[in-house]
């Protein structure tokens, strides 16, 4: 598959090909970049929320709450008649996407940010666009265009500069102990593992988006993820000090569950139907950018000149990726909703 604005997809069935696209389909086909950027913005802000919550409750318990909230919100999609139409191959892809993109990613990222600094995690997540590009080339045979390579380079350079300007990027700053250093290295390794999982998720989601509706993919993957997380989560729930949880904590839990499991997932699956996997990978640079913006707006952090320059570089890469190629038109995939 070539990295162009017109994605190559599997041939639709005659019925699907004749289906008239809805207004929502046309909106996402016209503005897929906005959907992808907004999805990753939700993910970025949730990094900060996750770091706040794992300080007051076990990681597994917080992760299980994410899936419980998602399953409740998506309950109307669990119709047996619809689930029976999903093929064995599609269930296999759904499991792979769930295992890497929701279950394992959630655990690795939450445990990682608990053991290392947000700055270090941001530097590592800056490698995500490059990781997606490599996997899409290896798995989907998407040969990157020059514009895609430039946009990836700009996004990575911007995020790297952004995080380099925020101080210590190696873990527990100021501790100076060997235990803190080893813990930071382990945390960095866990975040890197989460980056690889997210890249796998991007690749698999590109294939599934052409076969199933975005909301059904969201519902099925979180149902599978909830089952996978249940054994670990039950143990974690019994260790929670519920007297220490404020109404604000519960509000963050609900928002995290909806934003991470429903809003960002749905937007991503709808947007990626209309661009290549490599191009979609560029928008993952919004994760550390959004995390920094969250700190400035809600945590009172100051934005330096270097940080502003870094944001400008990253946004330039995203804008470059969003521009349509000359003489090309986006192809609207047949609706599956």
UniProtKB/TrEMBL annotation:
This chain's source organism reads Pandoraea anapnoica
Q: Where are the transmembrane segments?
A: 27-49, 55-74, 94-113, 119-140, 147-165, 185-205, 217-238, 250-268, 280-299, 305-323
- PANTHER family assigned to the protein according to its UniProt record, in alphabetical order: INNER MEMBRANE TRANSPORTER, S-ADENOSYLMETHIONINE_S-ADENOSYLHOMOCYSTEINE TRANSPORTER
Alphabetized, the UniProt keywords read: Cell membrane, Membrane, Transmembrane, Transmembrane helix
Q: What is its main location?
A: membrane
Would you say which domain of life the source belongs to?
Answer: Bacteria
Q: Which GO terms describe its cellular component?
A: plasma membrane
A Pfam family assignment = EamA
Pinpoint the EamA domain residues.
34-163, 186-321
Q: Write out the annotated subcellular location.
A: Cell membrane
Protein name per Swiss-Prot or TrEMBL: EamA family transporter
Membrane topology for this entry?
A: Multi-pass membrane protein
**Location of the region described as Disordered in the Swiss-Prot/TrEMBL record:** 1-20
